[in-house]
Amino acid sequence: MFWTIPVAQRAVTVDFENTRARLRVGRLRAFDDHDLANSLTSGLGLPGDLGFPYPKIAPVSPVDARVSFEIEWSGRLDEAMVHNSSQAFQGSFRATTATIQWSVEQKGFRFESNNVIPQTAPFAVIGHERNGRFFNG
């Protein structure tokens, strides 16, 4: 996995029994890498001779930014239990919906979601899982 960052434990609340969860983060320090190529190459850009169907993308230095977001999952749509001993994995998962409100700011610039009409994902999942050494067979 990449593009992950730790957040404070208090930023996450989960009520799995009632299929509800919330992730709330305010003014988290992040970098605006300008585009995918700079993000994947740590700001080195993307040379045009790699066989990709894209032109050369010039390097852009990342810019300090702050992101805030609140994601809420709620409403059980479906449920699945998974158990795979050969992969040492088991879990209980619930399909749900999610809404998100977010903003990003950097020097001289701010952008935010439309908070009057929350952004809704028609399909999302919350779950419990055990894997690796936490798998109990």
In short:
Strands 1, 2, 3, 4, 5 and 6 form a six-stranded antiparallel sheet that branches. This protein has one helix and six strands.
Helix content: under 10%
* Beta-strand residue fraction: over 45%
Count of structural domains = 1
- Summed up, the helix count is 1
- Main sheet? 6 strands, antiparallel
Name the average pLDDT: 87
Low-confidence stretches: none
Summing up helix and strand content along with how strands pair, one would put the structural category as: mainly beta
What gross morphology would you assign?
extended
* Rg result: 19 Å
Order of helices and strands: EEHEEEE
Number of strands: 6
Q: Span from first to last CA? A: 25 Å
Task: Name the features.
137 residues; mainly beta; six-stranded antiparallel sheet; 1 helix; 54% strand; extended
Write structural notes for this entry.
This protein starts with 11 loop residues before the first strand and ends in a 6-residue tail after the last strand. It has one domain. It is built from one helix and six strands; from the N terminus they run E-E-H-E-E-E-E. It has one helix at residues 36-40, and strands at residues 12-15, 20-32, 63-84, 89-106, 109-112, 119-131. It has 137 residues and is mainly beta. Strands 1, 2, 3, 4, 5 and 6 form a six-stranded antiparallel beta sheet that branches. The longest helix has 5 residues, at 36-40.
